[in-house]
Design a protein that fits this description.
Distance between the termini: 11 Å
CATH architecture of the largest domain: Sandwich
CATH class of the largest domain: Mainly Beta
Largest sheet: 8 strands, antiparallel
Radius of gyration: 20 Å
CATH topology of the largest domain: Jelly Rolls
Number of domains: 2
Number of strands: 14
Length: 258
C-alpha cells in the first residue's frame, strides 16, 4: 500500500471513530455467569468507565453475553456513578460535573429477548440517562408488553405496542445544540421532539439510573439485555475538520498520483 493511501485510510478511520465515542457502555460479552452491576469483573468499555452504586440479587450476567433482569423480590434502584468513585460527586450518585455542551448524545438499550409471561401486571424495567431520557419495558396485560421511550421522569413521548419477544434495539439521540431528541426503534426513527431541556428543567445528563418496579418476584420472568450505554457524537464542526483533512489527502493522491 502506498504511503499516502495508508494515511488516507488512517484519516478515514479517524473520521469513523470521531463519529461516536462510547462514554459508558456494557456489552457483557466477556463476563462469566453471575456477574452483578458493580462487581469488579463487569467491564465498562466506555472512556468514562464509571461504577454502579451496588449489586442486586436477581440481576446478573448469564455467561452468554447477556445481562438478565429476573426475580429480585421487589423494587430495585441502581445509580451510576457510585459516590466517591471515578467521575462521581462526593455527595450523591451523580457525575461530579453533569454532561452539557453542544454535542449529540446517544442513549441505547439493546435487548436479546424477554419472557414476561409469569410477571405481575405492572412489573416494569427502566433504564434512564439521569433526568434526560429513559426506556422502559412493562408487562401491560396478560398478553401485551409495552415499551416506552420518554424525556424527563414522567413525560412519555413514544409508546410501542405489539412488539413481539425477541431482539430489539432502542435508542434516543439528544442534540444539545438544538434541544432535539430523536427516538430510534430497531434502526428506524420513530419520533423527534424539540423541547427535552424544558421537560427536564436543566439540559444535562447527570448519570444513569436502572430501576425495576412492581413485583419482579419470580425468576421465571426475565429481560435479557445484550448491551446498553451512552455515547457521544461530536458537533458537526469537529467532524467537518476531520472530513476536510481526509478529503484534502484524497485530492492530493488523485491529483499528483503520490
Amino acid at each position: 500500500m502506498k504511503k499516502t493511501t495508508m494515511v488516507v485510510a488512517v484519516m478515514v478511520g479517524l473520521a469513523l471513530n470521531a463519529s461516536a465515542t462510547l462514554l459508558e457502555f456494557w456489552d457483557f460479552d466477556t463476563e462469566a455467569a453471575g456477574v452483578d452491576l458493580n462487581d469488579a469483573a463487569l467491564v465498562n468499555s466506555g472512556t468514562m468507565g464509571s461504577v454502579w452504586n451496588f449489586n442486586t440479587a436477581g440481576i446478573k450476567t448469564d455467561g452468554l453475553g447477556n445481562f438478565v433482569v429476573a426475580g429480585d423480590g421487589g423494587n430495585t434502584t441502581r445509580k451510576l456513578p457510585k459516590t466517591g468513585t471515578a467521575n462521581a460527586s462526593a455527595l450523591d450518585h451523580v457525575y461530579a460535573t453533569a454532561i452539557t455542551g453542544t454535542d449529540t448524545y446517544t442513549f441505547e438499550l439493546n435487548v436479546s429477548g424477554w419472557d414476561l409471561s409469569a410477571a405481575t401486571i405492572g412489573d416494569k424495567f427502566k433504564l434512564a440517562a439521569g433526568d434526560a431520557a429513559g426506556i422502559s419495558i412493562e408487562r401491560l396485560s396478560a398478553t401485551e408488553v409495552k415499551v416506552s421511550q420518554f424525556a424527563g421522569n414522567t413525560s412519555y413521548r413514544t409508546t410501542l405496542m405489539g412488539l413481539v419477544e425477541g431482539a430489539h434495539t432502542f435508542a434516543i439521540d439528544f442534540n444539545f445544540a438544538t434541544d432535539t431528541s430523536v427516538y430510534w426503534v430497531d434502526g428506524g426513527v420513530r419520533d423527534s421532539f424539540t423541547d427535552f431541556g424544558q421537560l427536564n428543567s436543566v439540559e444535562d445528563i447527570a448519570g444513569m439510573v436502572l430501576v425495576t418496579s412492581g413485583g419482579w418476584t419470580t425468576a421465571a420472568s426475565s429481560l435479557s439485555i445484550d448491551s446498553m450505554g451512552l455515547s457521544v457524537i461530536p458537533e458537526p464542526a469537529t467532524l467537518g475538520m476531520v472530513a476536510v483533512v481526509g478529503g484534502a489527502l484524497l485530492f492530493m493522491r488523485r491529483r499528483f498520483i503520490i
